[in-house]
Here is the input.
Amino acid sequence: MNSLRGVGYSLDTAVADLVDNSISAGAVHIEIDFDWNRGEPVMTILDDGAGIGSDQMIEALRFGGAGPQAARASSDLGRFGLGLKTASLSQCRRLTVASKAGDQRNIMAWDVDHVNGAGGRWEILENEYSGPAPALEKLKSRASGTLVLWEKVDFGREEDKPSRGAFLRDLELLHFHLEMVFQRFLDGDARRIVISLNGTPLKGWDPFLRSYESTIPSPEQPLRAPGGLIKVQGFILPHRDRFKTDSDFEKGGGPEGWNAQQGFYVYRAKRLLIAGGWLGLGRGRAWTRDEPSRLARIRVDITNAADKDWRIDVRKSTARPPDAVRPELQRIAEDVRKRAREVFVHRGAYGPRMKSQVVSKIWDVKSIDMGSRYFIRRDHELVDVVRKRLGANGQMLDTLLGLIERTVPIERVWLDVTEHGPPSGAEDASADEAELIGQAVAIVRTFHKAGIPFEEAVPMISRMDPFDRIADLKTKLDRHFRVRNRT
Ligand SMILES: Nc1ncnc2c1ncn2[C@@H]1O[C@H](COP(=O)(O)OP(=O)(O)O)[C@@H](O)[C@H]1O
Ligand SMILES: [Mg+2]
Here is the structure.
């Protein structure tokens, strides 16, 4: 028992494992409550599921009760017959289960200190309930249900006790974790359930941000895999520019942030097992989570019949795709990653808004054997105008552009982006826009000198990267020149 306490659960994965049990028991309402209790935290999780009958109670508390070989309903989220015990005792030293199934009521507890003190005899304590009374009353008032109580919560640590502040932060993380793991239940994509944490109902967090119209889904693909059919669907998430506020953008990243949460999301019976990462796929060496691929997320649906082939672990936080599907997953992931990288580098200019007009970019990227080279388009409208203005000296411009192309500081840019993330521009969008308009004004003037009138110049500039991102550029330029003409 002491050894099993250390199999590596976190608070998040431990609580999620108990929620699994409630869902498997058919519960509709699951209430989780943590009480700081002046530094001696207590947790209760109360459900209205089928409950545990008297004849199954000991079995439920036995380590490895219904083990991995037992046949299970397709909606059963359990597997090893360990979760209730190991998840709980990873976080606390006393686990009490009170359950009601019709007129059968039972209360049993594992107390680590008692077992240790009893010379290691596996003694279960019966009918000893020392938790909060209201939770037990609520259970009694129901036809059936189960109450799991954690006392002597030490989070698996000996001396290192969290402060109240740290405890509250952990609860916030737990909140977000559960909203992610059980999103499909909370949103009614699986059997709808209601979960509350300290009285606050959880809202599902969709890793694929399907409510954003600029999210690009690929068609769902069924794949034949050992352990049964799986379903795979890729999503390219919206570029940062597409989020209304910084906090929307942060929220979209997920509990671990944009970089960490790219990659595969593996759901087992609609319960999330893995939130991101590339499952060891990649050509040559395994892909790492890199900045440019951070808009790529891929959903994989497996059933609980595939547990062995996917090597599900006790904590339900790892899984490995069977060898037979790896090539196909690799192919799908390559495609999603590639398209996600395009959205990432073209900023928001990919997807619905772009379809109706072609944006004129000054940089041209050409693939060569060992990567890419970057060229300045000689037929870009501004380059063209400037060259014409230079007349016989037009060659000078090409000399300059040629030098710029040969000295693009690729390594430097790459290093900066890897270290500090991409330049966002979102923080001071208005200052950025004022600068851009200033530049657009300068181009209007240049065009003017080349004999291109304002009416022709403006549509050209509005199609030019990066001015295409300015809403109502024409009005803004109009205003600028009208004000100047008046003064
Ligand atoms: N909330 C609950 N409601 C009803 N039965 C439960 C609940 N929690 C646990 N059980 C019973 O206890 C058994 C053991 O649970 P657990 O140790 O988590 O293993 P597993 O979920 O892998 O079967 C479950 O199979 C189930 O029969
Ligand atoms: Mg379980």
Summary: The chain has 15 helices and 16 strands.
